[in-house]
Amino acid sequence: MNALVPRLSSARRAAFAAAAALALALAASIPASGAVAPGVMVESRDYITVAFSGSIALAQLVLTNNYRISSPTDARYATPLKPLRASRRSQLLAFPKYPNYALSNICGQWASMQLPHTLLHGHVYTVTVLNVAGPSTAAGFRFDETNGLNHNIKVNQVGYYPRSSAKYGYLGGYLGSQRGLPLDFATTAYVCQADSGEPVYAAPVTLRADQNKGYTNPSYTEWQMSGENVYQFDFSPVTNEGRYYVFVPGLGRSHPFVIDAGVFWHVFTNVAHAVYLQRCGIEVNDAYSTVFKHKMCHTQAMEMTTSSNIDGFITPGTGIDKFLSVRGGYHDAGDYDRRVYHISVARSMLDLYAMLRNKLTDGQLHVPEEGNGVPDVLDEVWWGLRVWLELQDPADGGIRGGTERLAEGGMDEKVDNLKLDYYVFGKYLVNGNGVVQASAWFAAAAAQLAREILPFDPARAQAALDAAKRAYAYALAHGAAGDDKSDAAAELFCTTGGGVYHQDFLGTGVRKSFSYATSPLPGLDASARTYCRSYWLSRAGDAMTWVNGGGSYRCARNPYSPIRFGGGTGGHGNTFDLCRGFSLTGNSNYLVSVHHDSNFVLGCNPLGRSWITGLGALTPEFFLHRQLIIDGRTNIPPGYHIYGPFAKSSNSASYGTHYEAFWTNLYPATLSYPRMRAYVASEWMAGMNEFTITETMAPSYCVFSFSHLVEQPDPPAPPDSRPPGILVIDPAPGAMVTSATPVVTLRVEDNRAVDAVWIEGQLTAGTTFYTRTAVIGEGPTVLTAIARDAAGNVSTAAWTVTGTIPEPWPLGMAAAALLSAARMARRHSRA
Question: What are the start-end ranges of the E strands in 540-669?
Fold first, then answer.
């Protein structure tokens, strides 16, 4: 087990478990969303909300004369009193199974009302309802502001890092047609020890965003986004590890949380395990999962096709009567397709590794490759790219676009049903933006993997580089240009040092390579490097601006982007850009912004929910995952980061019958309903409750691992028993060579330091790259190399190339040719 980041200690596991148990106990004693009696929620000392479902007289819902509040203990309510105001909110409670859109009796209605007198702690009250839901009904509750859970206090429900200066919580509530809950009375938030209730810190409460606050670029007001008056409190001075909750007089208490140095690692290991569960072509058994298992999946023979629309299903009639069986890659989401977009998962993980190379090691995760000497993240990258290695056309190096079905299958399709028909996309691929250069994407990822995995597994490094070169050649022959060509060329240059790749990169004029911005290689173009660095710092700067000024709840989401398909549950890739910014500059403001976004994901958001399964008090339960639906959701794996809110951007926008049914039943009406609250917990609303390996899972994998590891010292170096890795750059294994004296180029790396390299038996000088002229003859020739490190570990490489060397002309023939050329030149000059 790695000493730097061991799996959580028993004490820390107990702390997280105790916090979760306390959260569950509170939730069990109080109905959902902070209700203190069936149908009644205390919003604050001044407001309550009554919940209804079924047949409701909507016109009666907002009439104050239909409600009476009384109390046997509070003399001010001895005579029943009407509320001062009443407002309404409506939303679906659930959603029927796709594609049945019948909506009878599944819409919830909430009436929020302003009380004539503030509630008093410890007193009992009764709300009597008339003319709204048939006969008169009544519900009683006790106002306990000390122990009562209040859903308008938003905290990171998992926890905070002790040294973080982003330990913030928020206050905010939504009253429907009355909009934001008034919270002017809240001046102090007390951080209390969960076990004793003892306050340890009093945090001033300040207004962060009035509901009428306006934002520009784009233009909107706070009520359109959260619907709230949003207040904040900063308790960053609390650094002692332990279990806590927040108490706000007049509101109640928050969900519990921990302050713990392992909090980010706790999230990361759960997300990483969920990523493992998405692997395609494996069996998941008791050794690696206790909650979700299946037999070997998707290894059946799949017919190759010429189908090209990578955003759709396989086009019928495009099969070519050739078949492949491939393993590797990931199930895209709750279904099982594999698409070239998934290559971005490998790219993000490789950038993560490049930033934290000394901290990401073998044995940090419980995966089948654990203990093989290769950092776990690189093993994950290899699995992610394996499917594309197997989908590479051996004839020309082109990459086929993934695997899919002819049409959407039923929700009863088991993940390990090997009788289902799957097909392979062709190599010519398109989406709504035009041609998809999958081969260039793969070339970039495989080249980057080759250099990172080289010190640990030279064989896999060689396979990745050879595949990258062939894919790049195919991409160039089929029109790759701009960003695609630039990215692939930059990665191949950073791996091989090849001048042709360097010129290709510089020739595109595109300067967006993170690898080029951070490469230690000599001979880089200083201007291009500066532009690449500036590009990523610009992205990180935008994300930091969005965290601090893009909305009331600090989040790295782009305010220009629509709130759908993950746009409402965190910054995702933008947050990882903040990690890149910190890596480039060491500016702690980037890291603080990362922590703020993590708080948003785990509870500091308008709905006060954690958007990752199993982590926090209010977590996704009804998320879309076919196999889990088949299993009855009896065991939901933690670590799945779902999409969350899905808001309509205009009345003319249409996203399908089921979304329209959801929006039609909102009140206030669709565009007046806060966008960050447009959510229903139903697996049949895929845009809210699904996830993807690219959009939500991979970014969380990278962000939470970075957040933990960047704070840790490098682990002590293990004994040096691993020999250097030798990567053959040119001539490649199996190459046809036309020169009798080819220049052999190698990349040699060691986990410590390379001491000496021999090519063809000759000691060769170099740093990273080593070159020497070899001599070969016609036909097969075996070339050799030896590398030794400072500890005396030795590695060897031997590879075969084939000489196809043209025979030299006999002297007489050469002289005759020269004489003929001279005569022709004289004739032309006379003419």
Answer: none
Interhelix angle 698-709/573-585, rounded to 10 degrees, is 30
Identify which of 554, 595, 593, 570 has the alpha carbon closest to the alpha carbon of residue 691.
570
Whole-model pTM? 0.92
* Token code pair at residue 383: 């699995």
pLDDT digits 0-9 by tens, 24-74? 443 333 333 333 444 899 999 999 999 887 778 888 999 999 999 999 999
Residue 492: strand, helix, or coil = helix
pLDDT, one tens digit per residue, over 452-484 is: 999 999 999 999 999 999 999 999 999 999 999
CA distance 536 to 574: 11
Please return the burial class of 760, using the count of CB atoms within 10 Å of its CB with bins 0-12, 13-18 and 19+: middle
Looking at residue 723, what DSSP letter applies?
P
Find the domain containing 45 and state its range: 31-142
Examine the pLDDT at 643 and tell me if it is beyond 90: yes
The pLDDT, as a whole number, for residue 36 is 42
Contact of 81 with 74, CB cutoff 8 Å: no
Half-sphere exposure of 387 (CA within 13 A, CB side): 31
Q: Which of 103-107, 692-696, 813-817 has the lowest mean pLDDT?
A: 813-817
Question: Among residues 142, 162, 183, which one ends one of the domains?
Answer: 142
Question: Tell me, what amino acid is at 179?
Answer: R
| Average confidence (pLDDT) over 294-298 | 95
Identity at 773, one-letter amino acid code:
T
Distance CA 106, CA 318 (A): 43
Neighbours of 93 (CB within 10 A): 15
| pLDDT-above-90 percentage for the chain | 75
Give the Cα separation of 714 and 360 in Å (integer).
9
Q: Where a domain ends, among 142, 159, 177?
A: 142
Give the neighbor-by-neighbor strand order of the sheet with 736-737.
736-737, 794-803, 779-789, 754-759, 762-763
Q: Given 3-state DSSP classes, what are the helix, strand and coil percentages for the chain, each rounded to the nearest 5?
A: 30, 20, 45
CA 60 from centroid of its chain's CA atoms: 45
Residue 227 in domain:
no
The token pair that represents 798 in the structure block = 């031997």
What CATH number corresponds to the domain at position 770? 2.60.40.10
